Amino acid sequence: MIKVDNVKKSFGEPPIEILHGITFEIPDKSFVSITGKSGSGKSTLLYSMSTLDHPTSGSVYFDGVEISSMNEKEVHEFRNLKMGFIFQFHYLLPELSALENVLMPARRTGQHIARRKRAVDLLTEFGIEEKLDRLPRQLSGGEQQRVAIARSLIQEPKYIFADEPTGNLDSANGEIVMNWLKKATRDSNTTVIYVTHDPDFAALADQKILLKDGRLEI
């Protein structure tokens, strides 16, 4: 379970508060959307929850453990083993093949050899088994995002954080991506939290977090 307790986030000097005391809980194996108008704090909340940034105040707990109680090494290990990340821009390494990109998180933990079959299986499931050795520039935008999703799943993480994962895709590819993410919660017992501005994709969630001006809308 993820628990977000009175999280606030400020930027700048003098500080401007972007998140104003956000509190909620997310049960395991949930498919959760974060929505709201531009500037409402969606991505700020996602990053503050996911260890990629730190709240100005308040706490984030994963299975009862407060992230701020971990040292840097423990956070790094937790992130590598328990979390997957997907962004609007896929951030694939241009000099690596599709297969090598998928295996990057496993390489960081020394599991890339053991995880190679899983990587091939994921790319096969995503319909690009014939393009394992292609570089990112040799793939379409939809194929690149599928590689990014496979990369996020390679370590079988408990949590996936996705920031506008369909923002760079057409509607058909966007629907494919969202269906695969939804499938991850069902097949891999993964909790997926995603930011989206698309009401149709937000409607797929079984828990919806709506922000307005940095506050939780009930």
Topology of helices and strands:
Blueprint: E1 2-11, E2 16-26, E3 31-35, H1 42-49, E4 57-62, E5 65-66, H2 72-82, E6 83-87, H3 98-102, H4 104-108, H5 116-125, H6 141-153, E7 159-163, H7 171-187, E8 191-195, H8 199-202, E9 207-212, E10 215-217
Parallel strand pairs: 3-8, 3-9, 6-7, 7-8
Antiparallel strand pairs: 1-2, 1-4, 4-5, 9-10
Helix pairs in contact: 6-7
Percent strand equals 25-35%
Percent helix, as a range, is 25-40%
DSSP strand tally: 10
Structural class: alpha/beta
Radius of gyration in whole Å, from Cα? 17 Å
Number of helices: 8
Low-confidence stretches: none
Summarize the structure.
With 218 residues, this protein is α/β, with parallel strands linked by helices.
What does the model show?
With 218 residues, this protein is of the alpha/beta class. Helices cover 33% and strands 27% of the residues. The chain has eight helices and ten strands. The strands form two sheets. The chain has a six-stranded mixed beta sheet, sandwiched between helices. α6 (141-153) packs parallel to α7 (171-187). The model has no long low-confidence stretch (mean pLDDT 90).
Features:
6-stranded mixed β-sheet; 33% helix; alpha/beta
